[in-house]
Amino acid sequence: MPRERPLRLPIFPLKSIQSSISFAFSCVILAAILSISLISYQLSVGAVEKNSQGYIEEIIKQVNTNIQSYVDNMENISLLAMTSKDVKYYISDNSFISPEERRPYEKRISDLFQAILYTRQDIANLMVFGYNGRFVSDRRITDLNPNADIAQQAWYKDAKAAGGRSVISAPHIQNIIQNEYRWVVSLSRELKSTDGITAEGVFLVDLNLSVINDLASNINLGKRGYVFIVDRKGNIVYHPQQQLINSNLTAELIPEVTAAKSGSSFIADDDKGKRIYSIQDTSFGWKIVGVAYTDDLIASKGTIRNSILLYALCGLGISLLISFWLSYRLSRPIRNLQADMKLVERGNFGIQTEIGQMNEIGQLGRTFNMMVGRIKTLMDEIIQNQESKRKSELQLLQAQINPHFLYNTLDSIVWMAEQKQHEEVVLMTSALAKLFRASITKDQEIVPIRVEAEHIANYLLIQKMRYESQLDYEIDIADDIMRNKTLKILLQPFVENAIYHGIRGSADKGLIAIRGMRVGDNVVFEVEDNGQGMTPEQLQRLLLPEDGEDRKGIGIRNVDERIKLYFGREYGVHIRSEREVGTCVTITIPIL
User: Fold this and answer.
1) Is beta strand 182-192 parallel, antiparallel or unpaired with respect to 199-208?
2) Among residues 147, 178, 212, which one ends one of the domains?
3) Could you tell me if residue 70 is inside a domain?
4) Distance CA 61, CA 65 (A)
5) Cα dihedral sign, 14-17-23-26
6) 102-114 pLDDT, tens per residue?
7) In 38-64, which positions are buried (b, 16+ CB within 10 angstroms) versus exposed (e)?
8) What does the pLDDT look like over 207-259, one tens digit per residue?
9) Helix (H), strand (E), coil (C) string for 19-49
10) By C-alpha distance, which of 234, 253, 252, 231 is closest to 242?
């Protein structure tokens, strides 16, 4: 029956929907205004962000230059030690006759180091450690920490591995001097002999972090921007929030920074806000990173947005005033037809849409009503045909007997007859006859559970006599469900699958346990074996039809569909399996 709607008087007659579409171009103008406004805003903001990114890169390059110059000055100090004749002689293989002969060298080297420290307040220590066991520092009396092994210090090992090149360490606590612990960055370098080949010792410069902190902390990258430094291993050399990072109260994008190339930039957008990261590499392995918040740098972003929004609103208002009345008139019948289509999508094929004027939309509604009526008729026919076809296919599958099983069973009977095992022949033939009788009867699809239990007992008896010591089984079906009903030949496919795919290839004796019980308002069967089990991939393929399966036997998937067809989608088969442990099939049907 057509739905009843309140009577609506047409505002004015429209003979062609094409004439209405011509007025709807105002909507196209509206979309164009919004698109142009959005694109203009994105391009403007993008240009400002790109300029800001270039600005940050230039600042970080300058910071990199300053730090590089600072480290170069430290390397020049190491060159003083390398070129000092006193230092070279002191750490060479030459032997001093007495301590009095050695002290003048130590005094001159110490005076040289003290003169350097006098002009450089940022240097904490200057030391030379010879491989001959001698050492000298900027102090006249230096007591080394007996608990600190010089050879195991990271800066010492790195200097030896670098072979004469300067090595900058990560920030660390210097503990080689007794009762003195300073937070420093160490510049170390292996000293060579006059021939430039033989390594004779390691020169150490401990740098206070105050200078590096000053170089990085005085950089202005907006209100919240900052600069931090990491070494090639990702260790933080300097960060304004280093204590919070060490306490895991905040985090930094260290992996992304270490993976980035020198001179590159990337943008991070998270709960902290949108940030620009600019990276510059130093020659000695550090990465100087500048972080700036785009909201701080793009001061004109709000002005750009407001200006574009103002012009867009003006254009929007004009377009709406011109096209509102006509767009409403145009969209109303289409909305009504759309609502009816949604009802058809939900399965309501009895709907008939209201037909107004006989323009293009009216003709479309008339065609829609005819189409829905025809679809309803065809759907009813298809459902009836498919249900009948499916039942016929399942009955045919049920009636089929596996020729391979029949051949093997008869072959076993012949063998037992030749061996004069008359009782076994009678028992096996009787079980086979009962199995045939249950398979070929087609008058009833639903049978008592007692009949199904007898059928599976006969089947397992035949298989037990065939496989003898390879197979054992248990059947435990509760007496209180024996009079309830179930689908005929429900359990055999799962038992057959357990024998041929789970137990037959196993080296150990197989056990199949069949259980039946009442659980709430359902009857639950379980078919469990201790066979080889299945991998998740094999378990997934088990519920899919194999090639030729619909012609050779009753497949697991067909049994599941058969249960759902008779009892509903909430019932069916569930399989769990573990490799080398076994498989358990759970079959759930309602109580009948």
Assistant:
1) antiparallel
2) 212
3) no
4) 6
5) positive
6) 788 888 888 888 8
7) eeebeebbeebbeebbebbbebbeebb
8) 877 777 777 777 777 777 888 888 878 888 888 887 788 788 888 888 888 88
9) HHHHHCHHHHHHHHHHHHHHHHHHHHHHHHH
10) 252
Choose between 73 and 521: higher pLDDT. 521
Specify the CATH number for the domain of residue 547: 3.30.565.10
Please enumerate in sequence order all residues whose Cβ is within 8 A of that of 422, keeping only pairs 6 or more positions apart, or say none. none
What the block records as the tokens of 63 is 């910071």
Q: Average pLDDT, stretch 501-516?
A: 82
Q: Model's pTM, two decimal places?
A: 0.43
CATH code of residue 88 = 3.30.450.20
Domain count of the fold of the chain:
2
Q: What is the mean pLDDT of the chain?
A: 77
User: Rounded to 5 degrees, what angle do the CA atoms 369, 370, 373 make?
Assistant: 85
**Among 212, 236, 267, residue at a domain's last position:** 212
> For residue range 245-296, what is the model confidence (pLDDT) as tens digits?
878 888 888 888 888 888 888 888 877 778 888 888 887 778 888 888 877 6
* Range of the structural domain that residue 164 is part of: 84-212
Q: 149 in helix, strand or coil?
A: coil
Look at residue 106 and give its three-state secondary structure. helix
pLDDT, residue 588, reads 93
Contacts of 268 (CB under 8 A, 6+ apart): 253, 256, 274, 275, 277
Give the Å distances, CA to CA, from 564 to 284, 390, 561: 71, 12, 5
CA distances from 88 to 72, 157, 257 (A): 22, 20, 41
Helices and strands in the chain: count of H runs, count of E runs: 18, 18
Q: CA–CA separation, 194 vs 92, rounded Å?
A: 10
Q: How far apart are CA 138 and CA 125, in angstroms?
A: 7
Judged against a pLDDT cut of 70, whether residue 337 lies above it is answered with yes
H-helix or E-strand containing 489?
none
Cα–Cα distance measured from residue 60 to residue 271, given in angstroms and rounded to the nearest whole number: 25
